[in-house]
Write a structure and sequence with these properties.
three-stranded parallel sheet; 374 residues; repeat; globular; 5 helices; alpha/beta; 14-stranded mixed sheet
Length: 374
């Protein structure tokens, strides 16, 4: 039924040889799909609204073709699948992308290059498209540099540059993206390559989701992480650490004293914490409204602070706790229940002891069955 309705509405054209597969033909609809090794070349390209990569893993079209897309709104060239096994390659280091800047797009809102291998830099013409709202560069593993200034993208609401591990730094102008709501992959590198710092994000009054990657060459300003508390709209925060040297570990341990968080933060996701002792900022006094706490990977041994009191004010208000891949973590369920009295779900996977999957509903159900048995 869904395919039939889509065909009747001319949402997509479907291949006659394979009934359920959208076609690259553009003659009867305004949305084209990249299928296998085909590229849309039919008449009507100038009127296309959408180009969507269904399952093509090799992009080889010429930049002249992109320059014809005068009315395009959505350009999904990267993968839509979540698995990195869906690999996409280009043969010219992404030079075909310069064709996007050949026209002054007025309606272009969405560009995804997610998971495309071989793109080493993003041409500056893309950052001149002032109508762009969503830019997805996630997992472009060969990406090294971005344009020096991205402040022209004033309508941008979502920017994803996570999993770009060769990226050298952040361009200037991020603090001027006043419409930004989601920023993933903000890189803290050396001072030379990162003119934009965490303090600039305090200007983003609509930012509700942020992920930070602390690279192997990270150099941090004094009290830099204190500025996080000034992002009052922030609700979800993820911090990831690269595999670091002993020298950088000392710096991180010192800098950890400077962490402060916005008062209404609801979710905190920590990956690869490079210290064994729980840092001073990871405590219920600072994170009073946290409902979800995820800790994945790293050297953390426990969640106990030295000399911590057991009064009610020190208890976590976390409802969902996930602990994964913490080989040094030693924590038992009774201790967790004491520290997290509001807990609804616990997941402890591949830590020091056996795995635990616990939910309050299951625990209540067991108690109820035992009561009725007695």
């Amino acid at each position: 039924m869904l395919v039939g309705l889509a065909r009747d509405a001319q949402l997509f054209n479907f291949d006659s040889d394979w009934l359920w597969m959208p076609s690259c033909k553009t003659s009867i609809c305004r949305r084209a799909c990249l299928v296998f090794y085909q590229n849309p070349t039919s008449p009507g390209e100038e009127d296309l609204f959408t180009v969507f990569n269904v399952n093509s893993n090799y992009l080889s079209f010429k930049r002249e073709w992109l320059s014809k897309l005068k009315k395009v709104v959505v350009l999904q060239l990267g993968r839509w699948q979540s698995s990195p096994t869906h690999h996409i390659e280009v043969d010219d280091e992404g030079l075909f992308l310069k064709g996007i800047g050949a026209q002054h797009y007025l309606s272009f809102k969405y560009l995804s290059l997610r998971g495309i291998s071989g793109i080493t830099r993003i041409p500056s013409c893309i950052f001149n498209i002032i109508s762009l709202e969503i830019l997805d560069l996630r997992a472009c593993h060969n990406l090294e540099t971005l344009p020096s200034d991205i402040s022209s993208l004033r309508k941008l609401t979502h920017l994803d540059i996570s999993e770009c591990y060769l990226l050298e730094g952040m361009p200037k102008g991020i603090g001027k993206l006043s419409s930004l709501q989601v920023l993933k992959g903000f890189l803290i590198a050396n001072l030379k390559n990162t003119p934009s710092r965490l303090g600039d994000l305090a200007k983003l009054k609509k930012l509700r989701r942020l992920s930070i990657y602390i690279g192997t060459e990270a150099v941090m300003h004094d009290k830099e992480f204190e500025t996080l508390k000034e992002i009052s709209s922030l609700r979800r925060l993820k911090i990831s650490w690269a595999v670091v040297s002993p020298k950088l570990k000392e710096q991180i341990a010192h800098q950890s004293l400077d962490f402060s968080f916005p008062p209404d933060l609801e979710k905190l996701d920590l990956q690869g914490i490079p210290v064994k002792e729980v840092p001073p900022w990871l405590n219920p006094r600072q994170l009073t409204n946290i409902k979800k706490l995820y800790i994945r990977g790293g050297e953390l041994c426990s969640l106990d602070h030295a000399g911590e009191e057991t009064v009610t004010e020190c208890k976590w208000r976390v409802e969902i706790l996930r602990l994964k891949y913490l080989s040094n973590m030693k924590i038992e369920l009774p201790k967790v229940e004491d520290q997290f009295p509001h807990l609804l779900y616990l997941e402890k996977v591949k830590c020091h002891e056996k795995d635990i999957f616990w939910s309050k509903s299951q625990a209540v159900d067991k108690c109820s069955r035992a009561y009725h048995f007695l």
